[in-house]
Amino acid sequence: MKKNAQCTIMAQGFGQMKRLLGFAAVLIFSAGIFAATLKDAQDRLSAIEEFKSGILSSSPSGFFSDEEMDALNLLYQVLEGDEYTVNSLNGEMQFSIGEYSLVETKWPTEIQAFFFGGKISYERSVDIMYSDAMEKKYVPEPQMTEYQRRDYEYYINDYETRIRSGEKFFYAELTFKLTHWHGASEYRFEPAALKIYKNSKRPRAIITIDETQSKDFFTFAEEKEFRTEKQIERNSARIKKLLKDENKNASTEKAKKKDIIFTEQKGRRSFYVSAETSTDNIDFSNTDFASYKLDNMYGTLTLGLGKFIFAGISAGIDLPSLNENVPVYSFGGIFGLNLNLGTHIRPYGQTSVYARTDDHVVFKTGAGIDFKLGKFMLNLEYSYNWSNNVNASVKDEETEKFGSYTAGIGLTW
């Protein structure tokens, strides 16, 4: 009789085990077919707890066997393999939009949500700039044409009316992942990205914020340890490897960000025309720039030699000499170093030597900066100069030393 009762209990246990494994198979098969939602995350967490409870109810030892642990790990893989989406359209997130600020040209917003029975709280403040909402550059009001001003006022009033009427013209969407952690029912909540959508004819993201650094932890259910010491050690080793990989990836990303200024790094390649004046001719208290005297005009070509080095040639004419009917020309070589800071700014340092047709040799050393707009370039430069007369018939002429400013315009590639 007692033996029959034990057989019945074992049969029920195997039946329950078979049912749970069947349920797990369905869960695994369905994963990834449809976009995962917050409800999917909750259902999968509940399924994992139900699976654990079912196994433990028929386990005489109160611990999982390695085979049962393998089955549970499959469920963890399903849970961790998806990225879950939650948004404010269905009330899963609270998304409040303040009134439009004419001064700051933005709609301030507040996002708040509580997940998994309040175990995880999520709060963010995001500004929807006018340029984001309109998906085009904002023109400051003083610079607006009459047409642009009418357009601006119309859309502000239109959007404000829609928002205040309760229309979900803008909505927030958060994507996140879950990872089983150290505890038996402990999980890591890993936000991936927060997006603000403009819900017009076709919803499209107008703001995307990286949230990968905002991790949190929670315990989904009452902690009941069911793992053997070896199983716990294997899980700890898994997390240790996961953290190591994440740190490695973070270091790689940090290095990429650090090297972003070198992404398009190359030696200075340009052709430009510039005007030079000595520092003696500059009085910064005088805003009548037309009165400043120009000394030289140059045409300069530079070519990159690797990532940071450039060399070039330059030819110029001494402007005051034109009034004496004996034009003085200069021809020189340039060698320098440059650094590309992003796509628009390129500082450089250079030295150059010029031979002039009035028997002078001019040595220059200085620094400058290029402002790049596509292929178009503006240039500003300061140099310190040493000028020597190399004519043997001229004796005891002292080396002339002076500073000079140069401004140029040209092309770069």
How would you explain this protein's 3D organization?
The chain is α+β, with helices and mostly antiparallel strands. It folds into three domains: 80 residues; 144 residues, no CATH class; 143 residues, Porin (Beta Barrel). It contains six helices and 17 strands. The chain has an eight-stranded antiparallel β-barrel. Strands 1, 2, 6, 7, 8 and 9 form a six-stranded mixed β-sheet that branches. Strand 6 and strand 7 form a beta hairpin. Helix 1 packs antiparallel against helix 2, helix 1 runs parallel beside helix 3 and helix 2 packs antiparallel against helix 3. The chain is elongated and about 115 Å long.
Features:
413 residues; alpha+beta; Porin; 3 domains; eight-stranded antiparallel barrel; 6 helices; 17 strands; 38% strand; elongated
Task: Please sum up the structure shown.
This protein is α+β, with helices and mostly antiparallel strands.
